[in-house]
User: Fold this.
Amino acid sequence: MLREISAGGVVVRRAEERWELAVIEPQRESTVNAAAPARRKRSQKIVLALPKGLVDSGETPEQTAIREVLEETGLTVVPVTKLGDVKYVYVRSWGDKERVFKIVSFYLLRYQAGTIDEIAPEMRIEVKRAFWIALADAARRLAYRGEKEMTQRAEAYLQAHPEF
Assistant:
């Protein structure tokens, strides 16, 4: 079984009386290839996820998380702490259909600068849009169980560290 190592970020910022979280809406195949006939699904539910990607050679997972956040959201961030790892197996939907064991390390990152969704045109292949949501709503709005858990860990960290 193949192995993939990725890293991502739980990016937070303080907005008035609440914490906000940077999320992405990944592109779907039918929206990426406009020439291909769109496949209609019964429910075109919006999928929200955290920014993440493969660790490049010579990069630490924390560096990857910071890079992926910049590429996928347009934000520069400051690392705070590692929140944990999400582990799962998936089957590639392209090419060889091989099973892949994946580990994604997530980091709590504090927003520093930038305008969300100002990303390079070539990133639109991967990211439809990026925007802020209330951190308190993340567990309900994110699509993936492991990512929901990471945002809950971020909330717990922020509650335990009011000086943050």
